[in-house]
Amino acid sequence: MLQTLKTTLLKVIDLTALGFLEPYVRLAYGEEPTKQLRKIGQFTVVPVLVIIAGLLVWATMISPNVKTKSGELPSPTVVASAAGSLHQFAIREGNKEAAYVATGEEREAWLADVEAELESIGAEVESANATVVEARKAEAASKSERIAPLQAKVDALKTAMKEERAAKQAALKEQAASLPVGDNPQRAAYLGELAGLNAWLDEQKAEIDTIDDQIKLIRDEKDPAVLAALSQQTAVAEREQYLKKMAEQLGEDNRQARVATGQEKLDVAKTTFFNAEGAAAFNAAKKVISAEERLAKTEESSYAKPATLYYQIQRSILCVFAGFFLGSAIAIPIGVLCGLSTTFMGAMTPFIALFKPVSPIVWLPIALIVASALIPDPDKHWFTQWMWELPLIGQYKINPAFMASAVTVALCSLWATMVNTALGVASVDKDHLNVAKVLRLGFWSRLFKIVLPSSLPLVFAGLRISLGVGWMVLIAAELLSSSEGIGKFVWDQFNNGASDSFAKMMVVVFIVGAIGLLLDRIMVVFQRLVSFEGSIAAV
Amino acid sequence: MGFLELNHVSKGYGPPSNRYEVLKDVDLSIEENEFVAVIGFSGSGKSTLVSLLAGLEQPDAGEVRMKGNVVTDPGPDRGIMFQNYSLLPWLSVYQNIEIAVKQVFPEMGKAERKTYIQGYIDMVSLTNSEWKLPAELSGGMRQRLSLARTLSMKPEVLILDEPLSALDALTRAVLQDEIIRIWEEDKRTVVMITNDVDEAALMADRIVPLTPGPAATLERSFAVTLDRPRDRTTLNFNPDFKKLRNTVSTFMMDLNEEAKSLRVETTYRLPDLEPLDLTKVG
User: Fold this and answer.
1) Is the complex ipTM more than 0.90?
2) CB of B62 within 8 A of CB of B9?
3) pLDDT tens-digit map of A245-278
4) Nearest residue, CB atoms, B74 vs list A437, A453, A532
5) Interface A:B, Cβ pairs < 8 A
6) A309-530 fold
7) Measured between CA atoms, how close is B30 to chain A, in angstroms?
8) Of B137, B154, B171, at which residue does a domain stop?
9) pTM for this one?
10) Whether residues B215 and B270 fall in one domain
C-alpha cells in the first residue's frame, strides 16, 4: 500500500517535471538518506538561498539606487504590501457586493458590526492625522536645522564674492585708464586679466550652486517617518471610507431597503390612481407603470463592482485560452495538411514566412477594428448578449476588445504549433508507415491511428510554445485594447501615478510570471502524457 | 509454378547517371509451406528483397508473383516482421495486435476478437504484459510481440527480415525454437532473411545464399534434409548438419572472395624517394 503510494508519487513528480520533490519522497521512505539530503541541498536549499540573495540585492542595492519621477524602485517589502492592499481591495469589494444583497437578520447583524467599527475608527483617524502633522513638523524642524548652516555658508560666500568682485573691477578700471596706446602686448595681458576675473566669478558661482543643490536635496528628501505616517493615514482613511460604504450598502442603499422603498412608492402611486378622477387618472396610471418598472429593475440590480485584480487575472486567463484554442484550431489542421502534402506545404510557406514575424502590436489594431465593426454595440448585439448569459463565462462580459485580444493571441501564437505539427506529421517513422501499408489502412485510419499519435509529442511541444507566446502577447494586447485584464491593470496603474502604482506594477510582474509558469507546467504534463519512447520531443 | 515467385527481378537506386544496382536478375521460387532462409552478407540487398516480396517496393525489371498474381502493393496476406520490430510505441501490447486484427478481420465480434488477440499474446508468452507499452518490454519481448502481430493477420506468407539479429545469443536461441514451434503447429510459407548460417540450417528447409552486392543475385540453393524436430543440442554432432554448414559457409566465403577479387583495386605508384641525410651536408 505505502509502496504503491510511493511509486504513484514518484510518477506524478516525474510527469510534472517537479524533480526537486523526489528526494523528499525518497527520504520519507528512508531510502539512502545521505544521498537524498545532498539532493535536497542541491535542488531546494541552493535555489532558496539564491532567491533570498536576490531579494537582498533588490532591497539593498537595486531599489535604493534606482530613483525615478515616480519615486524609488519599490523594495520587496513595499511590493509585498502593495500585493496585500490589492488583495484587501478585492476582499472589500466582495464584501460590498455581498452587503448590497444581504437580507433579514444577517443584514441587521452585519450592519450593527459595521457601525460599531465605524464608531471606533474615528479615534484612529484622528490619531493618524495627528501623527502625520507631528511627523511633518519634526521633518521640517530637522530639515531647517540641517539647512541653516548651509544657507549661512551660501550667504557668506555671496557677500564675499560681491565685495571682491567690486574691488577687482575697480582695480581693472583703473588699470584701463593707464593703458598706453600702441603697446599691444600689454593690452593682450590686460584682456587676459579681465578673462581671469570672469573665470573666477564662474568658479564662485559654481561653488554656491553646489551648496544650493545640497539644500534642495535636503528639502526634497522624503522622511521615512512621514511616509510611514502618510501610508498609515491613507490606510485608515480607506478603511473608514470602506466602512461608510458598507454601512450604506447594508443600510439605506441595500437592495432590500430599496425594494421596500420602491414598493411603498408603488403603493402610494396605486392609491393615487385608484382615487384619481378624470384626466388626472391618466397621469396617475403612468406613474404606477413607471414605479412598477423601477421596482422590477431594483429587484434585479446588483452592486456595480469595480474590476478587482483577481477578476482581471481570471479574465486574462480566459482570454489567453480563447486565443490559444482558436489558434490551435487553425494551426493543427493546416499543420497536418502541410506535413502530409509537400505541395500544400509549398503553397503555405510564403504565408507562414510572411505572417510569422508580425508583431502583436500590428495585429491588435486590425483585429480591434474588425471586431468593433462586427459588434458595434455589445450591449445590443445578439452574440455578446448570448455570451453574457452563459453560465461561468457570462460574468466576464466578453466584448470586442476581449475578442480582438484573443484573436491577436491566436495570430501570434499559432505559428509554433503549425510548424511543429507539420514537422511531426512529415517525420513519422518510416517503419510505422510501412505497418500502415501492410495493414492497408485507409487515409483516415492511417491519419488517426498512425500519423497523429506519432506526431502528438511534437504537436504538444508546439502547443506549449504557443501558450507561452500567447501569454506574453496577451498582456500587451490587453494593454493596447483596454480589454479588462492584467494588461489593462498595468496600463491603468501607469496612468494613475498614485504613490503605490509603481509597487502594484511590480506585483503584476510576479503574478504574470507565476501564471506563465503554471501554464507551462500544465502543458509539460500533457506533452509527457502523449510522449512515448523515442519520440523526438520527449522532455 | 511456385507459391511465391521472383522472376528475373532487378532493383536499383539513384539517378540513371549514378545508379546503384542492388539486386540483379534474381530468380526464386518458393513452394507452399516451405521454410526458406535467404542468407547474405550485410549490405547485400536482403532488406530490398524483403521490401520487394512484401510489395512495399516495386522491381525495376521482372516481377514478383504470389499464387500466380503479380504483387503490386503490400497486404496482410504477406505478413512481414520488420528487422526493428516497428511496433507502435504509443500502443500497448494488446493494442498493437488489436490494430492489425481490427483491420484484417473487421467482421470479428468484440468478444471473439478479445479471445483471438489473447490467444496470440499467450502463444508468444507475453501473458500478463498485455497493457505494457513497447518501451517497457525487453528486446526479446518486443520481437515476440512483433511476431504475434504478424501471425495474428493470418498471413499466407510470413516474411521475417532478420528477426533475431538484434538479440543476444540466449534470447535468440529461445526465439528460434519458438518460431519453429509456432511454424510446426500452424504450417505456412516462410521466407526468413538472416546472416547466420547456423540459424538458417537449424530452421529452414532450404538455404538460398545471396551473392554480395552490388547487383546481388541468388545463385544456387542448398536443401536442408535434416529431420524435424531438430534439437539444437544434438544437432552440433550431426554429421549432415556439420557438412551442410561447412558447404554453405565455404560457398559464402568463396562468394566473398570472388566479390573482393571483382573489386577494382587501384594502386598508386609512389616515386622512389630517399630522405636526404642532412648530417652529411657541408
Assistant:
1) no
2) yes
3) 998 888 888 888 889 899 999 999 888 888 888 8
4) A437
5) 58
6) MetI-like fold (1.10.3720)
7) 21
8) B154
9) 0.80
10) yes
